[in-house]
Design brief:
Strand content of chain B: 5-15%
Distance between the termini of chain B: 42 Å
Structural class of chain B: alpha/beta
Shape of chain C: globular
Mean pLDDT of chain B: 94
Oligomer: heterotrimer
Strand order of the largest sheet of chain C: 1-2-3-9-8-5
Chains: A alpha/beta, B alpha/beta, C alpha+beta
Strand content of chain C: 25-35%
Order of helices and strands of chain C: EEEHEEEEEHHEH
Distance between the termini of chain C: 19 Å
Number of helices of chain C: 4
Low-confidence stretches of chain C: none
Low-confidence stretches of chain B: 1-8
Number of helices of chain B: 15
Radius of gyration of chain B: 26 Å
Order of helices and strands of chain B: HHHHHEHEHEHEHEHEEEEHEHEEHHH
Largest sheet of chain B: 7 strands, mixed
Shape of chain B: globular
Number of strands of chain C: 9
Mean pLDDT of chain C: 93
Strand order of the largest sheet of chain B: 1-7-6-5-4-2-3
Helix content of chain C: 10-25%
C-alpha cells in the first residue's frame, strides 16, 4: 500500500499537520491487553459494587425482568452494527422495527403519532417543552415540582438561554399530586405548556386530566411525562394530553447505572411537523412493495441547520429495538399482568412497612413506588440496617426535596421477592431498637 | 446487465456478492392472533390487588388496542428476518464519511453486560458504586490525555448533545467574565448539528466561507471576529478530510479578541496519538465514542458525547463531578458555577464501559497505530479512484477523502445514483452530498478496520461504476437492482406521512 | 416559458397584478431546482407581507426554501389546495400552483422587479 502511494512511511501522510502541533510523546495509556485481562479488569470493577444485593430503588430507573430474546436479537450484527438508516434499500430491517416502535409507543400512550426515540426521558422533556413553545408561540413553562428532580435540572440547563422562563407548580402536601389551585394561579395566556409527570416522582398517579382542563382553558398545552413505562400497562392514558414524553428504560434496558435509556415523544397528528428527532414513514419502492424510510427530515438539523426543530441527531435505535422486542414479548396480556404484579408487590411492601411503624407520606394512589417515613429512627438508619442484610433500601429524599428530609422513596417491582420485602420492612422496626 | 449468480456485473468480475434468499415478513401487528402469548412471569408471591380499588376505576385502562399477540418463535423469526434486510459493518466496508464506521468488538458487548455493572443503579450508595465510578474516572483521565485537555465530562448522551453542553460551557465562562456575547461563527463546511446547537444555546450563527483549499479562510475569519463573537466551532480535520493547518493561528486570533475555540471531535479518528486538540489551542471539544472509540451505532444510537475542556472551563462542567479522597471516589454536587445537568444520572454509562474496553484493548500505542491505518486506508482509496472521479480539493487527505460527481454528472449520473449503484456491488454507500461546499460530494471514510483486499474490491466497484456512468448510465440511474427493496419513494412518504400502523379499515 | 404579463424576483418568485390585487407564486426554475415539493407553509389570510420579507417555506424531501414576498400587501386568499396537493407546485407553478393573493400596498414595489425576458436571462446567467 505504501508503494501504491509512493511513500516510505505512513508518517509521511501526516505531513500536513505542522510539526509544532504533532504529539511526540506516547499516550499515558498502558499497553494493549488481551480479551481475558480486560474481562478480569471489568469483573474486578463489578466486585466493587452491589452484586447480589436486593434493591428497592426506582426513582426514574427501574429493575424489571428482561426476556433473554431481547439480547439474542439486539446483538445480531445486522442490528448492532448498522448506521442510521439513511440508505433505505439496505436498511429496511431497522426502518421496519422503528415503524413498529413508533406504533407501539402511540398505542401505549394513546397518542396519534410518535417519533423514532429521544436520548432519554430527561432530555425528551425540554424537547417537548420547546415544541410546545413553537406550537403556541408562547414563551413560558410551568413544571410540577413532582416532576423528576433531575429532569427539572436538565430543563433549567436547556432553557436558561432560550427566553423560556420556567416556573414550578407545588404539589399538594397531603395527596402528593399537583396542587391545582397553585397551577391555576400561575396560568396565563403567556404559558406555552404545563408539564406534569404521572406516575409522578413520588410514584403517584397524578391529576393529568384536571391539569389538562386548566391548561387548555388558558390556551396552553398539557405535557404528560412518565419515567416508569410499566405503569402504562394499566394506567388509562391521558387522552387530553397534547404531548406525551417519557422514558422506556423499563421495557428495554437493564439499569446500567442510568444509561443508555430510551426517550419517547408522542403527540397529535397535527403537530407532527413540530416534532424533534427522527421519524420513519411508510411508502412504496419502485416495484410497488411496501417500504419504509426516514421522513419529514426537513425538520432536522442536517437540512434546516440553525432553524431546525432541535439539534438532536442520533436517536437510541438499538435501545428502541430492545423496547420493541420487549413490548412484543409481553404483548397485550403480558403488560397488564406485569403492571398488576408491580401494583401488588408495592402494596404488599407498603403494608409491611406500615406494620413496622412506617407511614405513607402521601394519600394519592401509587403504582409501584411510594414515599414513606420511618416511625422510629431516621431513613439513614433504616437503610444502614438494610445494607447489613445485603438489601439496598429506597432513595433518601432529603437531598432532592429538603421538605421531605428523613423520608424514603421506595420501589417494589415484579423482581422483588416476598422474603426480600419482609426483610427490608423489618429494618423499619429494627432500626428503632438500635437508637 | 442484471446480476446473476456467477456472472460478471459491469466490467469487473466481482467476488463480493451473489444473490441471496431473504424472506418476506409482515409487520408484527399483522402477525398477531387473538390470545397468543410469548411472555412468562413467575407466579405472584403476594396477595393480588384489585386495580380499580387501588388506583380508582377511572385511572385503569382497558386493553391496549392493536398491541401484538405472538409466540416466542414468531418473535425470533420476525426480528431475525427483518435483520437480514439490513447492511451492517459486520457484513463489510461501511465507508460513510464523518461517521467512522469501524468494527465493534464483541468483547465490549460482553463487558458491558457483566453482573454488577449492567445492573448497577444510579442511586445505589456510593460505597457500593466504587467500581462503576472508577470506570468513569479512568475513562475521563484517558480521554483527557488523548485530547490534551484538563478535564472531561461523560454526561452528554450523543455528539450533538456534547456540542450543546460545550457551547453552554463557553457561554457560562464568558458570562462569568461579564459578557456572554451573541454570535457563534461556523465554517460553511460544518455538520448541521453545529448551527442547530448554537441556535439552541441562544446564539446567532454567522457562516465563514472556506477558501479554495477547503480550509478556513484566515482573512474572512479576521474580518468576522469582533467583540460580539463568543466562539468559532470548527471540525478538525474538517469535513473535507483536510487538516486545518492554520488552527493554532485561528486559536490565537480568537483568544486575542476574547473568543473561544470549540472543536467538533467527529473526525478524531484521524488524530488520536498523533496530535492533540489541546495543543492547538482548542478550549472545548466533544468526542463521539460511537465513532472514534468503536461503540456500536446500533442503527442510530445510543451514542455518547463526552466533552473535554481546558482548566479555565472546568468550574462550569455539569454536576456532579467525581472526586477521589484517600482512595475513595465520591460525587461532588457542590459546584456553584456549573451549568447544571444536561442529562439525568451519569450519561450513557453502558456506552462508556464499551469505550473503555476499546481503549484498554489497544493501549496508547495501539490507538496511535489505528490512526495511522485509518489515514493510510483513506489515502489508498483516494489514490485508487483519483483518475475516475473529480477531486475538488487536492490538499492531503487525512482519515477520509471527498470527491465530486462532476465527471459523472455530464452523463446525468449524480452522487446519489453512484451511491445506490454501490449497493449492487455489495457495499454500503459513502456519505452523499456532504459537505455542502462540494457540489455532488462523495465523502468516503474507510477506517482502520478494512484490509487491503476489501479496499481493492471497493476501488474496483467505484471504477466500474464510473465506467458504467459513461457507457450504460441507465444501469446506475435505476440502481439498486439486486436488493429486495428497490428504490424507495421518499417523496410519497413526505407528502402523506404515515408514521404508525393502523388496522385495515375493513377490520381484517 | 415565463409568462410575459408576470413580474419576477431574484429569489425566483413571480407576481401577477390584477388591478389592486396580485397573485404570487414560485417560478418554474425554482420548482425545478427544488425537486419534488412535499410541503408548503403559507401565512394566514389577513397577514401583512412586507416586500422582500419571508412569508412561507417550500419543502422538498431534502431541502427547505424560504419564499419572499415580491411586493408588500395584505393576504386576501391562500391556495388551500396545496396542503393536499403540493405536487401542483411542480406540475403547474405559474398557474394552479399559485401561493397567495394580496391586496397591494404600494404598486411602486413592482418597479424593482424583472420582466419575463430579464428573468429568463437572469436564470440563464445563474446556471453558468
Amino acid at each position: 500500500m505504501l508503494a501504491a502511494l509512493g511513500i516510505e512511511s505512513i508518517e509521511d501522510l501526516f505531513a500536513s499537520i505542522p510539526e509544532c502541533l504533532r504529539y511526540r510523546q506516547r499516550l499515558a495509556i498502558p499497553n494493549g491487553r488481551s480479551e481475558y485481562e480486560i474481562l478480569d479488569y471489568f469483573r474486578a470493577r463489578a466486585e466493587e459494587g452491589a452484586k447480589g444485593y436486593a434493591s428497592f430503588l426506582g426513582a426514574g430507573v427501574y429493575r424489571h425482568f428482561r426476556p433473554v430474546v431481547i439480547d439474542a436479537l439486539a446483538t445480531r450484527g445486522e442490528f448492532l452494527t448498522s448506521y442510521t438508516p439513511y440508505q433505505a434499500e439496505i436498511s429496511q430491517g431497522v426502518l421496519t422495527t422503528i415503524f413498529e416502535f413508533q406504533t407501539m409507543v402511540a398505542q401505549l400512550t394513546g397518542m396519534e403519532t410518535a417519533n423514532a426515540s429521544m436520548y432519554d426521558g430527561s432530555t425528551a422533556v425540554p424537547e417537548a417543552g420547546m415544541m410546545a413553545a413553537r406550537i403556541t408561540r408562547r414563551g413560558r413553562l410551568l413544571a410540577a415540582r413532582s416532576l423528576h428532580p433531575e429532569y427539572r435540572q436538565v430543563l433549567n440547563t436547556y432553557y436558561r438561554h432560550q427566553d423560556l422562563p420556567i416556573e414550578t407548580v407545588r404539589y399538594d402536601r397531603d395527596s402528593g399530586q399537583i396542587d391545582l389551585t397553585d397551577l391555576e394561579s400561575k396560568l396565563s395566556d403567556e404559558v406555552a405548556a404545563v408539564i406534569v409527570q404521572s406516575p409522578n416522582f413520588f410514584g403517584l398517579i397524578d391529576k393529568t386530566r384536571e391539569a389538562a382542563e386548566l391548561a387548555h382553558r388558558y390556551g396552553a398545552l398539557l405535557l404528560v411525562i412518565f419515567s416508569e413505562a410499566a405503569a402504562l400497562g394499566i394506567l388509562e392514558p391521558t387522552a387530553e394530553a397534547d404531548i406525551v414524553a417519557g422514558e422506556l428504560q423499563s421495557f428495554a434496558h437493564p439499569t446500567s447505572y442510568g444509561g443508555p435509556c430510551v426517550g419517547v415523544l408522542a403527540t397529535k397528528k397535527k403537530y407532527i411537523r413540530q416534532m424533534p428527532g427522527r421519524l420513519v414513514g411508510q411508502t412504496v419502492d419502485a416495484d410497488g412493495n411496501r417500504a419504509f424510510c426516514l421522513t419529514l427530515a426537513t425538520r432536522e438539523q442536517h437540512i434546516r441547520r440553525a432553524k431546525a426543530t432541535s439539534n438532536i441527531c442520533t436517536n437510541q435505535a438499538l435501545v428502541a429495538l430492545m423496547a420493541t422486542v420487549y413490548m412484543t414479548v409481553f404483548g397485550k396480556q403480558g403488560l397488564r399482568e406485569l403492571a398488576e404484579q408491580n401494583l401488588a408487590k408495592a402494596r404488599y411492601l407498603a403494608d409491611a412497612i406500615r406494620a413496622n411503624a412506617g407511614s405513607l407520606v402521601f394519600s394519592g394512589p401509587f403504582f409501584n413506588e411510594f414515599v414513606v417515613r420511618p416511625g422510629l429512627g431516621d431513613s439513614a438508619r433504616v437503610n444502614d440496617a438494610a445494607l447489613e442484610k445485603n438489601v439496598i433500601g429506597g432513595l433518601e429524599l432529603g437531598r432532592l426535596y429538603p421538605e421531605l428530609d428523613g423520608a424514603l422513596l421506595v420501589c417494589a417491582t415484579e423482581v422483588n421477592r416476598r422474603e426480600e420485602m419482609d426483610s427490608y420492612a423489618a429494618c423499619f422496626g429494627s432500626s428503632s431498637r438500635r437508637i | 446487465m442484471r446480476l446473476a449468480s456467477g456472472r460478471p456485473l459491469g466490467e469487473f468480475e466481482l467476488s463480493k456478492i451473489r444473490r441471496h434468499q431473504t424472506q418476506n415478513e409482515p409487520l408484527i401487528f399483522e402477525r398477531s392472533s387473538l390470545g397468543k402469548i410469548g411472555y412468562q412471569l413467575p407466579p405472584l408471591d403476594v396477595p393480588p390487588v384489585d386495580a380499580d380499588e387501588a388506583l380508582g376505576a377511572e385511572n385503569v385502562r382497558g386493553e391496549i388496542a392493536g398491541f401484538p399477540e405472538v409466540s416466542e418463535v414468531e418473535i425470533i423469526r420476525h426480528f431475525t428476518r427483518l435483520s437480514t434486510w439490513n447492511y451492517a459493518i459486520d457484513l463489510g466496508l461501511y465507508p460513510l464519511g464523518s461517521c467512522t464506521m469501524k468494527y465493534n468488538p464483541r468483547l465490549n458487548e460482553a463487558v458491558a453486560r457483566i453482573e454488577g455493572i449492567v445492573d448497577a443503579h444510579p442511586y445505589q450508595p456510593q460505597t457500593l458504586a466504587q467500581g462503576v465510578m472508577r470506570i468513569q474516572q479512568v475513562l475521563e483521565s484517558y480521554l483527557s490525555n488523548i485530547t490534551g485537555m484538563a478535564a472531561v465530562t461523560l454526561q452528554p448522551a450523543a455528539g450533538a448533545h456534547g456540542e450543546l453542553t460545550g457551547i453552554l460551557l463557553i457561554r457560562a465562562y464568558l458570562e462569568s467574565k461579564g459578557d456572554a456575547r451573541g454570535v457563534v461563527l461556523i465554517p460553511d463546511s460544518a455538520h448541521g448539528t453545529n448551527p442547530a446547537t448554537a441556535a439552541t444555546a441562544g446564539y446567532k450563527v454567522k457562516e465563514i466561507a472556506s477558501n479554495e483549499r477547503g480550509m478556513i479562510d484566515m482573512a474572512s475569519l479576521e474580518a468576522a471576529v469582533d467583540d460580539s463573537v463568543a466562539a468559532l466551532m470548527v471540525t478538525n480535520p474538517n469535513t473535507v478530510g483536510i487538516f486545518e493547518q492554520d488552527i493554532a493561528r485561528v486559536a490565537a486570533l480568537l483568544h486575542d479578541r476574547g473568543a473561544q475555540l470549540y472543536m467538533d471531535g467527529a473526525n478524531m479518528n484521524a488524530l488520536v496519538g498523533v496530535a492533540r486538540p489541546g495543543d492547538f489551542g482548542v478550549d472545548v471539544m466533544h468526542l463521539n465514542l460511537h465513532k472514534t472509540f468503536s461503540t456500536p451505532h446500533g442503527g442510530g444510537g445510543p451514542g455518547a458525547g463526552p466533552v473535554a475542556v481546558k482548566s479555565h472551563i472546568e468550574p462550569f462542567l455539569p454536576v456532579p463531578r467525581i472526586r477521589e479522597e484517600a482512595g475513595m471516589l465520591r460525587y461532588d454536587h457542590d459546584l456553584p458555577d456549573s451549568i447544571g445537568r444536561v442529562r439525568a444520572f451519569y450519561g450513557n454509562f453502558g456506552v462508556l464501559v464499551r469505550a473503555l474496553a476499546y481503549i484498554l484493548a489497544h493501549g496508547g500505542d495501539g490507538l496511535r497505530n489505528a490512526t495511522l491505518d485509518a489515514v493510510l486506508n483513506a489515502n489508498y482509496i483516494r489514490k485508487g479512484i483519483e483518475n475516475d472521479y473529480h477531486l475538488p480539493y487536492d490538499a492531503p487527505s487525512m482519515h477520509e477523502c471527498v470527491f465530486s460527481d462532476s465527471k459523472q454528472s455530464l452523463y446525468g449520473v449524480k452522487t446519489g445514483d453512484i451511491a445506490k449503484r454501490l449497493i449492487d456491488y455489495g457495499f454500503h454507500p459513502y456519505t452523499v452530498s456532504f459537505p455542502l461546499i462540494v457540489h455532488g460530494a462523495l465523502m468516503i471514510e474507510p477506517t482502520e478496520t478494512e484490509s487491503k483486499g476489501e479496499l481493492d474490491l471497493f476501488i474496483d466497484a467505484l471504477k466500474s461504476i464510473a465506467r458504467e456512468a459513461e457507457t450504460t448510465p441507465e444501469l446506475v440511474l435505476e440502481a439498486p437492482q439486486t436488493t429486495r427493496t428497490s428504490r424507495v419513494d421518499e417523496t410519497r412518504a413526505a407528502r402523506k406521512p404515515i408514521v404508525i400502523w393502523e388496522p385495515p379499515a375493513d377490520g381484517v | 416559458m415565463y409568462p410575459s404579463e408576470y413580474r419576477y424576483t431574484k429569489e425566483h418568485e413571480w407576481v401577477k397584478v390584477d388591478g389592486e390585487s396580485a397573485t404570487v407564486g414560485i417560478t418554474h426554475h425554482a420548482q425545478d431546482q427544488l425537486g419534488d415539493v412535499v410541503f408548503v407553509e403559507l401565512p394566514d389570510v389577513g397577514a401583512k407581507l412586507q416586500a422582500n420579507g419571508v412569508f412561507g417555506t417550500v419543502e422538498s424531501v431534502k431541502a427547505v426554501s424560504d419564499i419572499y414576498a415580491p411586493i408588500g400587501g395584505d393576504v386576501t386568499e391562500v391556495n388551500e389546495v396545496l396542503i393536499d396537493r403540493p405536487e401542483l407546485l411542480n406540475s403547474d407553478p405559474h398557474g394552479e400552483g399559485w401561493l397567495v393573493r394580496l391586496k397591494i400596498f404600494d404598486a411602486t414595489d413592482l418597479d424593482a422587479l424583472m420582466n419575463a425576458g430579464q428573468y429568463a436571462e437572469y436564470v440563464a446567467a445563474e446556471g453558468e
